[in-house]
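Cross-posting from the chemistry board since nobody answered there.

I work mostly on the small-molecule side, so proteins are not my area. We synthesized flavin-adenine dinucleotide and want a rough idea of how it might sit in this target. Sequence and SMILES are below. Is it possible to get a predicted 3D structure of the two together?
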Amino acid sequence: MSAHPEFVIVGQGLAGTALAWQLLRRGRKVLVVDRESGGCSRLAAGLITPITGKRVAKSWRWDELRPAAEAFYREIETRTRTAFFHPREAIRLFATANERSRYSGPGGEVAVRDDWFNAAFGGFVMPEAARLDVSCYLEASRAHFRAVGAFRTADLDPKQIEPNTSAVRIPQLDAEAQTLVFCRGFAPDGDPWFGAIPFRAAKGEFLTVRVPGLAEERVTHRGVWLAPLGDEVFRAGATYSWHQLDGVPTAAGRTELEARLRELLKLPFEVIEHRAAVRPIIGGSVPVLGRHPDCPRVAFFNGLGSKGSLLSPFFANQFAAHLCDGGEIDPEVDVRTFLNRVSSRHNPE
Ligand SMILES: Cc1cc2nc3c(=O)[nH]c(=O)nc-3n(C[C@H](O)[C@H](O)[C@H](O)COP(=O)(O)OP(=O)(O)OC[C@H]3O[C@@H](n4cnc5c(N)ncnc54)[C@H](O)[C@@H]3O)c2cc1C
């Protein structure tokens, strides 16, 4: 028997999961499909951090994104009866005097154990930081989607879908939907509608390390972040590389992370695991969403870059309001802005 969901979502990473929830809470009939292999969400550390990078700058639209993320994850925690959102202060240590001079925010000096960390230039505490247990959130969501008949495992070939003016036929699923949304993260094979939007994807590698004697419970940032997993085990990351965009860890990545960890830590550590994934970065590192202007039955939600945990709830909500009720999409994240840029590059006046 063929299925007739209103929305088919291709991809159950952070983008597809948040969008599915935002549509379901509006009472819409949704089918999420995922091939259940790869994707970078499963490897994401889930850090939600107000001040990041060498510029020590506040994260883009932090003041509206952070409360939206907390409200959303709390609601899904209640619906799935699972705990995965953990507000917890984080520490930023300055790596140089120059970096310290660039910081003008609140916080003052931070108290850290100076037999654990290299904190010669001081630092500050970030009370609004949080951590999403991404795997737990995705698993709990998938279990719920399955339970309500809204999930299927499939590797969907984008070239085999057939949109027309009133619907999208998906023979591979024996389904017909009103709209199909690609939430595929970094997908170098592209699709016939949005494949021209160029990724600036960045490979990220991270380590799992054991640090005997280290009992810091907060995430610590200083050129690298170190996130506690319990029992003196920590996750440390992450590199940025624009080459060899695959999930294969490299010797160079490990060397870089180990060097940065030695700058942060005064304690010896042992590497337990080394992994890699590719961040779906587009344009200026902002999300990209919307229906295709010439083929509105297909749509796109991508570009979550390094901050999928923070960005996905707010923009999935905005996108769901657009898909269901024609709500506005912010021009800076509207997929039409990106498609126009591509076509003006190909057809200069
Ligand atoms: C090392 C590293 C650390 C990170 N740490 C953080 C962090 O601390 N905090 C944070 O917020 N973000 C972090 N990120 C970024 C975060 O991982 C991304 O922003 C986010 O995961 C992107 O989600 P997505 O849903 O767009 O893509 P993905 O997670 O890649 O999801 C895409 C999904 O689509 C599926 N798919 C693709 N094609 C098909 C198809 N044809 N048919 C069926 N299914 C398909 C895939 O299986 C996958 O499940 C990190 C990333 C990396 C690499």
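Reply from a structural biologist on the board:
Welcome over. Reading the output above for you: The chain is about 25% helix and 25% strand. Helices lie at 14-24, 62-80, 97-102, 134-147, 251-264, 308-325, 335-346. Happy to explain the token format if needed.
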